[in-house]
Design brief:
The protein is mostly helical. The chain has helices at residues 7-18, 22-29, 33-41, 48-58, 62-65, 98-119, 123-146, 163-182, 203-209, 214-228. Helix content is 57%, strand content 0%.
Length: 230
């Protein structure tokens, strides 16, 4: 049976991405609008025959529709399946593939993010997003660096008592400015991003526009949301 919470969310997502009403989708899927509404709200569970029809109608795999795979094709990624984000060969970290997997997910997902920024080119937006990401990386790197007391703090100009708070504050400021830039409402002294229509996204066009990297992004979203809800 469909997994409650994933199936109804994805079923609704696909319909809305297609830009059709419940009535139109229900007619194509051979069910009543009321029944489809119950499926989308998670009130009722459907049979496998409906899962197959819905998967065929929306052009996705059953595994994707059931929440078993974050990729529309149903692909389950291994480390070898994820394209390299750079030309440097990854070490195997003493037999563990998890760091390699996470590195590829992050690298390829960043490629999608910066690809989207090219669609709506705005120097200020790129700067703020880059500063946010660099502050997050700086904080994590410095935490790892500081784990060994033999490592010299002179590598950094900000005292160890201050860097974490400074990084958090900088990220919050960048996050607020990014939100203001992307908001339809004008905020004083912060320019709005003009080409916002270029950022209309669906799982389908992400897969088409970024065939080498979209799977990494979808897996990163799925993994992160699981971690956030633990």
């Amino acid at each position: 049976m469909p997994e409650v919470g994933s199936f109804n969310r994805i079923l609704t997502l696909l319909r809305k991405e297609r830009g059709i009403t419940q009535k139109e989708a229900a007619a194509s899927l051979g069910v009543s609008q009321a029944l489809l509404s119950h499926y989308e709200k998670g009130i009722r569970e459907c049979g496998l025959d409906f899962v197959v029809r819905a998967a065929d109608f929306y052009g996705v795999s059953c595994d994707y529709l059931l929440g078993r795979s974050p990729d529309r094709t149903g692909l389950t990624l291994s480390v070898e399946d994820i394209p390299e984000g750079d030309s440097q060969e990854d070490a195997r970290y003493k037999g563990s593939v998890l760091p390699v997997l996470n590195k590829k997910l992050l690298t390829n997902s960043l490629a999608v993010l910066y690809g989207l920024l090219l669609k709506a080119p705005d120097k200020n937006l790129v700067t703020e997003i880059s500063q946010y990401l660099m502050a997050a990386y700086y904080k994590m790197f410095r935490l790892v660096y500081s784990a060994n007391p033999k490592n010299q703090n002179d590598m950094f100009s900000i005292p160890k008592q201050l860097y974490s708070g400074y990084a958090d504050a900088a990220m919050k400021v960048s996050e607020a400015r990014i939100a203001a830039m992307l908001s339809p409402e004008k905020v004083k002294d912060i320019p709005n991003v003009e080409d916002i229509d270029e950022l209309q996204l669906t799982t389908e066009n992400l897969s088409t526009d970024y065939p080498q990297h979209a799977s990494s992004l979808f897996n990163l979203i799925q993994q992160t949301e699981k971690n956030l809800q633990k």
